[in-house]
């Protein structure tokens, strides 16, 4: 199977919210999210004293290797000690990028073009989807809504929206 080149573009990740995160401190956790992809790291703001934070922040990453998953880490900000890890997850970009390679211009905005199901183990073991994830053609862009179950902790979900932003040819 030959892989078509990834169209020139950027990945816009909207970190929407965290749900039922692990409480790390007696007076409430101060969570923030770090996204890592191909040696790039970006992070959200810290939300004070909550295990159900709402960030609603857009972070942008350049995609150089479509087979590399985005790594997501959640931390509790601490003033006087090392920040506590509140879990991690990964999400595969391949399904989103496969849709970005297709000519979807004639499809009505809001159409679900693919559904990604959670899977365990095997080659796709990096997927942390907590539920089915829809990839939608929305106003000229491919958008994936994803709920990710955090690993290495008892509880926690992170809600992301991945948006492939095509760079117009010069």
TrEMBL record:
It comes from the Eukaryota. This is C2 domain-containing protein. Keywords: Abscisic acid signaling pathway, Calcium, Cell membrane, GTPase activation, Lipid-binding, Membrane, Metal-binding, Nucleus. Pfam families: C2 (PF00168). InterPro entries: C2_dom, C2_domain_sf, CAR1-11. Residues 1-106 form the C2 domain. GO terms for cellular component: nucleus; plasma membrane. One of its GO terms (biological process) is abscisic acid-activated signaling pathway. GO terms for molecular function: GTPase activator activity; lipid binding; metal ion binding. It is found in: Cell membrane; Nucleus.
């Amino acid at each position: 199977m030959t892989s078509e080149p990834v169209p020139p573009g950027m990945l816009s990740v909207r970190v929407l919210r965290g749900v039922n995160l692990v409480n790390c401190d007696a007076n409430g956790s101060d969570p923030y999210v770090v996204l890592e992809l191909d040696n790039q790291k970006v992070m959200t703001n810290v939300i004070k004293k909550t295990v159900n934070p709402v960030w609603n922040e857009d972070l942008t990453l350049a995609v150089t290797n479509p087979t590399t998953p985005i790594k997501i880490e959640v931390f509790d900000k601490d003033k006087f000690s090392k920040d506590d890890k509140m879990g991690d997850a990964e999400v595969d970009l391949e399904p989103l990028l496969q849709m970005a390679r297709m000519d979807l211009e004639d499809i009505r905005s809001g159409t679900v073009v693919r559904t990604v199901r959670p899977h365990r183990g095997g080659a796709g073991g990096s997927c942390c989807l907590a539920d089915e994830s829809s990839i939608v053609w929305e106003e000229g862009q491919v958008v994936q809504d994803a709920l990710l179950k955090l690993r290495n902790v008892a509880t926690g979900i992170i809600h992301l929206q991945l948006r492939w932003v095509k760079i117009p040819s010069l």
